[in-house]
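Subject line: Sequence and fold of a protein, written as structure tokens
Body of memo: The sequence and its backbone structure tokens, given next.
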Amino acid sequence: MFSRFGHPRMAELLLFKDLEKKGYGNVSKLFPRNSRKIAATLFVGVLLFGGLVTAGVTYYATPKYTRVGYAPYQPVPFSHKIHAGQLGLDCTYCHTNVFESPHANIPSPQVCMNCHDPMKGNIKGDSPLLAPVRDAYKTGQPLQWVRVHKLPDYVYFNHQVHVNRGVSCVSCHGRIDEMETVTHQEPLSMSWCLDCHRNPDPHLRPTETVTKLDWDPLKDWSVSALTQFTDSQKSFAAKLKEHSGVAPPTNCTTCHR
């Protein structure tokens, strides 16, 4: 048809006139001169919008973004299940500054060698798996651990504020004492944090039990200045908020400074 009439637009005009003769009205008004351009623009726009929505959902609503389930290979196969679980080492033996620092520290090779140094505890002191620890201890260079829990650079988080108000390691990191390999347990997203700030009660416990990862309020209700006047975790949380002024803020400047 195009070769017969010379130009696509000419073919359209003839088609419109033919339709009008058959009683379909002024068809040319329904299809303006730029109708092809509009259709093409809409088609491309729908494709781009669909692509952006798909990419956004795929990235921001999946573990690739939230990091849930992330369990990287480490230079030393350190088992929290053995150390914190079976042996019962307290979290603060290795992470010494969690109650005093905004950031939780990673233990130095010296801490590891307190038990694994052949000249000291000599617990598996000659194990080839611990060779990176021994080398780091001798050279003074830190071990290159792969970071598991990481917040964006634009997010401010103060570790000591949370643990000193009775928020346990379990609330954010899960049952580390049951993990052979540390795994990212919670999404640590803005909505996840806000849920806790709006209702912190289920996560509050006596400060002395913060690092007791298997603590059960129904079985291990400890005696403290507050718990002796309460008989449940719920009532304790209410008393703690009143006594210590626990009122987590929810405004933007709390985390974005």
Notes: The mean pLDDT is 84. The two ends are 66 Å apart (CA to CA).
